[in-house]
Design a protein that fits this description.
Fumarylacetoacetate hydrolase, domain 2; seven-stranded mixed beta sheet; 4 helices; globular; binds zinc ion
């Protein structure tokens, strides 16, 4: 499986990092080795002093597709999840400055938390899902999928122009504002509406 991530998909997050609003979705990939295994902690890598959490709605692909039209995109997923795109922000800034790919800062081991998936049928509208991240039991990030610059179906159309989507692939749809540094002993807990879908300790 592969993990396709979308950058800069929420206006307030673009502002907090002083990025320009893109005219097309920003895409990058994480390898499957980035996934934190169930019940494991997140270990801050030695090459970074500024790892940020980015909480993101996830979409799990359930059939193979290429050049998927937006109006048929809903047929390609039936589960929605929540996860964290851990980002070594210091390393990413350095790479961005040099015009180099971000992979090392985004795809390192442990950089992808994938929480429990919920059936799409749980939601009356996938473009109106509330989600949040609590850090040590305090609200740290919150969002609603209505605030995405590119909604789920538009992302599937766009991504599948470049990458064939396969069963089990996961799309990270971008983070709202509130990204921040994690430190040892933090606990990060994710909720879709009021259902807890992951809880992970930082070490
Ligand atoms: Zn992200």
């Amino acid at each position: 499986m592969k993990i396709i991530c979308v950058g800069r998909n929420y206006a307030e997050h673009i502002e907090e990092l002083n990025n320009a609003t893109p005219r097309e979705p920003v895409l990058f990939l994480k390898p499957d080795t980035a996934i934190v295994l169930k019940k494991q902690a997140f270990f801050i890598p030695e090459f970074s002093n500024n790892v940020h959490h980015e909480v993101e709605i996830l979409v799990k692909i359930n059939r193979v597709g290429k050049h998927i039209d937006k109006k048929f995109a809903y047929k390609y997923y039936d589960e929605i999840g929540l996860g964290i795109d851990f980002t070594a922000r210091d390393l990413q800034s350095e790479l961005k400055e040099k015009g180099l790919p971000w992979e090392k800062s985004k795809g390192f081991d442990g950089s992808a938390v994938i929480g429990k998936f919920l059936p799409k049928s749980t939601f009356s509208n996938v473009n109106d899902i509330n989600f949040r991240l609590e850090k040590n039991d305090k609200l740290q990030q919150s969002g609603n999928t209505s605030l995405m610059l590119w909604k789920i179906d538009a992302l599937i159309e766009y991504i599948s122009k470049y990458f064939t989507l396969k069963i089990g692939d996961v799309i990270f749809t971008g983070t709202p504002s509130g990204v921040a540094k994690v430190i040892s002993n933090d606990t990060l807990t994710g909720f879709i509406e009021n259902t807890e879908v992951f809880s992970i300790k930082v070490k």
